[in-house]
Automatic annotation (TrEMBL):
The lineage of its organism: Bacteria, Bacillati, Actinomycetota, Actinomycetes, Propionibacteriales. Keywords: Membrane, Transmembrane, Transmembrane helix. Pfam families: Zn_peptidase (PF04228). One of its GO terms (cellular component) is membrane. It is found in: Membrane. It is a single-pass membrane protein. Residues 1-62 are annotated as: Disordered. InterPro entries: Uncharacterised_pept_Zn_put (IPR007343). The chain crosses the membrane at residues 66-88. This is Neutral zinc metallopeptidase. Its main location: membrane.
Amino acid sequence: MPHVSYQQWGGRPAAGPWQQQGYPQAGFGQGYGQPAFGRQGPGYAPQGPFGGGPQRPPRRRGGAGTMLLIGLGLIGLFALIGFVATGLHGGSNNSDVAYQNDDYRVPPPDLSPPPLPVPDTYEQAQDLITNSPFYGQQVPAPVRCDATPINVGTASDAQLEDHFTKAMECLVRVWEPPVTGAKLIIVRPSVTIYGSKMTTKCGTSGVNAFYCAADQQVYYSNQLARAVPIVADDKWAADVVIAHEFGHALQARTGILISAKALGQNSNDEQTDLLYSRRLETQADCFSGMYIRAVATSLGIQQSDVQGIEDTYKAVGDDQVTGDPTIVGNHGLARSRVFWGDKGLGSADISACNTFTAPKNEVR
């Protein structure tokens, strides 16, 4: 593993090779709703109830591959999910089940988490996204989860917060063994329920669900919760959403998130930048599938639930959101999101989610 330095991100990025006049407030958004800054960059999905892409920062021009990744700023990635499963076998919550990692005491939300790992060079960034020690780990299963499904379309803010707080506890219990097994640090984010607009250290977001790398917390709009049943008529859709957002938290804590974002910006090529974004998003889909697989026995998720879960992934493909089957977007086509969700649902090996070594046509 390459040497990794640590930097506390906050406010505007430090002056340096990444800094340009007009650089946006630290923290860039991409997610399930409107663009984070209320603007729209070229090549991104138009705004809509379940669409919209991020406004990316200006690209740095030139620079050697060994340039230090100092002053890149914050990254806030957010998105929704959707997937298929093969061989998903859920069951009822049985007291005789030998749940994995059940002795682990999940910590409370960490509102002052340790800094995220930042690679020193572009070469190290490339190594992190393709050869992270995280890929050598496995996700335990079955894992106990007490976050029973709710009707998110009619739930109050207090009920939403309670549900997602319990789901976050389940997510940390599932992911703690592989993260610490890779000698990395896992952090439990808080989940903040908000209305139509939320301003965080990552900027201002509209109706969305997102992970903000600036404070390492998760945010979920109650208006998105009301709309989820319209997009995907599935009782597990909201849990797929939150698991995807935690997938971005995993990418942040492993250095994959900042590395991919840095490499995309440094490419000075929009299509390359979009490709890195799609690799991040489809990997988060894959991680969400692995989580659903891990808690399926505890929550009673059955093979008959797979179609609804698949519809969730499918509904948020770039082509489905825009109605343009030829679009080259920043999240991935429906078929790509289904493909990677399926990968996660069908495997415990985190290496199965290495989208950064996958052929381009698998992250189209």
